[in-house]
Amino acid sequence: MRLSVVVPCYNEQDCVPRLRAALLHVLTPLTDEFEVILVDDGSVDGTLDQLRALARADSRFRYLSLSRNFGKEAAMLAGLAHAAGDMVALLDADLQHPPELLGDMVALLDKGYDQVVARRTRTGDSRTRSAASRLYYRMMNRLVDVELTDGVGDFRLLSRRAVDSLLSLRERNRFSKGLFSWIGFDTAVVDYENVARTDGTTKWSLRSLVNYGIDGIVAFNHQPLRLAVYLGALCTAAAFGYALWLVVSALVHGTTAPGYVTLMCGIIGFGGMQLLLVGILGEYLGRIYHETKRRPHFLLKESSHAPEAPCADD
Ligand code: UDP
Ligand code: MG
């Protein structure tokens, strides 16, 4: 098998027919040896029925169905784990990742690269969203030890070596943008124009974006914990200075009763700071808790092939 294409699908019944046509259009001239692995991530619409029909009609289309919605990261992992190709492409079902790019990407991989990533321009994004994401990436790259690039998502082509490396990372909290970058290997970039989603709806809300952002920071480094050390040192130094000033002033002018404002500011300020830092500790603790349970990343409900395949990923 030369090329596997992995597509996570969550409630994408409107996209599947166009996706099939677009993939066939691109893949048929590229190679005879390809497979498309569609991963139904616990969809509640007609997606699974469509995937079943597709796999029945054309054996090059295979599907996996997860037992519930495990999230895109898990769906991609399931697809990667079942892909047999020497190279594996990851792309979205909504055609926001134009399959036409696959030709160029395959050519680059053949030149010896292990990862070919597609980078999108941000045309069409709202100005606040692109400004927020620029700011986020600038901050991330200062905090995190791996290099992350704005506009680079999960749309990419991986060599067998890169796929096996990714599969060998067993962590539960998967922030794949970071994982892709962490495994290293020679990486090439191709640019493409941003495409607006035409069918179905995006699964990202503002809240899930913010949570994703926090995941990215916490999954890849422990710098935020260091914040506690710096803040603690700063506050202690400030408190010493202030105490000294109070003592001297009491000695010179005698004690005066007022201090309500100072006290309140101190209590509220320090209370807030402590809660924040406990929260940061909790973020790490929660992750350790989940890692130690060692639950599988996903459970399979059915698949188009090998019914005797293990139903979990380990
Ligand atoms: N997706 C998934 N599981 C989820 C959410 C999304 O498999 O829980 C898939 C979805 O079907 C699509 C891809 O991930 O193929 C990207 O999702 P979406 O288009 O909503 O994200 P966006 O393009 O807005 O970043
Ligand atoms: Mg999309």
Q: How would you describe what is shown here?
A:
The protein is of the alpha/beta class and 314 residues long. Helix 2 links the parallel strand 2 (34-40) and strand 3. The two termini are 24 Å apart. The chain has an 8-stranded mixed β-sheet, sandwiched between helices. The protein has helices at residues 16-30, 47-57, 72-82, 102-110, 127-143, 160-168, 176-182, 206-220, 223-253, 260-293, and strands at 3-9, 34-40, 61-66, 87-90, 115-120, 152-159, 187-192, 300-303. The structure holds uridine-5'-diphosphate (UDP) and magnesium ion. Residues 8-10, 12, 41, 69, 71-72, 75, 92-94, 96, 197, 202-204 line the site of uridine-5'-diphosphate. This is Glycosyltransferase. Residues 4-166 form the Glycosyltransferase 2-like domain.
